Amino acid sequence: VQRSRDGRCKCLSKVGLSWKGSVDEDVVELVQPLTGREQFFTTSSCAGCILLLDGGINGFEVQKQNRCWLLVTHKLCVKDDVIVALKEANGGAILKFEPLVLHVQCQQLQDAQILHSVAIDSAFRNSGIIVGKRGKTMLAVRSTHGLEVPLSHKGKLMVTGEYIDFLLKISKSKNVGKQEEN
């Protein structure tokens, strides 16, 4: 159950604000203690994902907008998954690993400050608090453990399959809670 600011309960499996539309099963255990407290509710969460993006003028832009998403997975993937998706690349394909992110709206600034301290002490060093114009206080829990690597240029693969496998192993080691899989 996810609790909104006004105390109403929402089911975690209902569509949320993220494009995925649900809470990742790998982050539910982290989110549940927060949603059980009146002063917090989550607005989005992602346990970590691997993206393969194609497009851009020279293939090396870092934004996700205006790019073709060749592969998106919140689960661990293998080299063959990436190789198959790369066959659709026309421009510069980039492999990205995005680590856990959690957005928590807090009733009061003091609540956000306490949760922020916990996040920083738990190695989520890229976390921060945002206070909106209307007083809405949002905490973003973020890690610095991302990865972004170009794999192709103008549709031509620039790395070996062995290197792609190596990158996926690095992503796996950076992904909180998923290291023991595979």
UniProtKB/TrEMBL annotation:
Source organism superkingdom: Eukaryota
Gene3D superfamilies listed in its UniProt record: tRNA wybutosine-synthesizing-like (3.30.1960.10)
Gene Ontology BP, a term: methylation
A Pfam family it matches: TYW3
Pathway(s) it belongs to: tRNA modification; wybutosine-tRNA(Phe) biosynthesis
Catalysis: reaction(s): 4-demethyl-7-[(3S)-3-amino-3-carboxypropyl]wyosine(37) in tRNA(Phe) + S-adenosyl-L-methionine = 7-[(3S)-3-amino-3-carboxypropyl]wyosine(37) in tRNA(Phe) + S-adenosyl-L-homocysteine + H(+)
Keywords from the named record: Methyltransferase, S-adenosyl-L-methionine, Transferase, tRNA processing
Entry function: Probable S-adenosyl-L-methionine-dependent methyltransferase that acts as a component of the wybutosine biosynthesis pathway. Wybutosine is a hyper modified guanosine with a tricyclic base found at the 3'-position adjacent to the anticodon of eukaryotic phenylalanine tRNA.
Protein name (database record): tRNA wybutosine-synthesizing protein 3 homolog
Organism: Balaenoptera physalus (Fin whale)
